[in-house]
């Protein structure tokens, strides 16, 4: 959901900031999965017709 939120640009926060927070706060064992989820959320929003 964070990836989707960052893609619709409602908040003045870049996707890179969300990714940095994920990298800084989450344990390494789940980091790759969470980064992929962030990317997928953004992709879904980009594919959605507006």
Overall, the morphology is: flat
Q: N- to C-terminal separation?
A: 18 Å
Q: Which ranges are low-confidence, i.e. pLDDT below 50, for 5 or more consecutive residues?
A: none
Which class best fits the helix and strand makeup? mainly alpha
What value does the average pLDDT take?
A: 91
Number of helices: 3
Total number of strands: 0
Helical content, roughly? Answer: over 70%
Tell me the major beta sheet: none
Q: Over all CA atoms, what is the radius of gyration?
A: 11 Å
Explain how this protein is built.
It is a single chain. This protein has 50 residues and is mainly alpha-helical. The chain has one domain (2-47). It is built from three helices and no strands. The protein has helices spanning 2-8, 15-25, 28-47. Helix 2 (15-25) runs antiparallel to helix 3 (28-47). It is flat, with a radius of gyration of 11 Å. The chain starts with a helix and ends with a helix.
Descriptors:
single chain; 76% helix; 50 residues; 3 helices; mainly alpha
How would you concisely characterize the structure shown here?
The protein is 76% helix and 0% strand.
């Amino acid at each position: 959901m964070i990836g989707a939120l960052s893609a619709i640009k409602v908040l003045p926060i870049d996707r890179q900031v969300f990714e940095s927070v994920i990298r800084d706060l989450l344990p390494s064992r789940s980091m790759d999965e969470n980064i992929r989820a962030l990317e997928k959320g953004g992709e879904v929003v980009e594919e959605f017709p507006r």
